[in-house]
Design a protein that fits this description.
Order of helices and strands: EEEEEEEEEEEE
Strand content: over 45%
Number of strands: 12
Helix content: under 10%
Mean pLDDT: 89
Shape: globular
Structural class: mainly beta
Largest sheet: 5 strands, antiparallel
Number of helices: 0
Distance between the termini: 22 Å
Low-confidence stretches: 1-6
Radius of gyration: 16 Å
Amino acid sequence: MPLNFFSPKPGRFGVMPVAITVQPTFGTLAAGTVVHNLGAYPVKAFISKISIAAGTFPTAATSIAATLQKKPSGTAVPLTSAIDINDQTAATAVQGSFLTTITEANQTLNPGETLQLSVVTTGAVSVQPADVTVTVELLVEE
């Protein structure tokens, strides 16, 4: 049966949107950098969007910033500018924006590559995160 109600937007024809949703375990957040593995996808896909939501966003004295990165076999490649998750409104998604210098090759997730969320905290943390969910939309190309 055809899905008559579904019509992809221009630029999304010929791809299937898939959401990877992960609830990373933050534990006790402190000053420094923590990298969370968001997983992989078995076929070639274009990394389209990222959003972060939480029951309680963390609060630090200075800043807490998250960056989506792709991890090929070597060094991790940053994909987004810093996403401010410090003291955000609970249960409201924070959207990430891709770097203006990103290439199509960098934004393509190939089999064997993984996605990571790098969280950099500066200053003492007064409120710990709870119920954090990270969603990355992939556009499957194959």
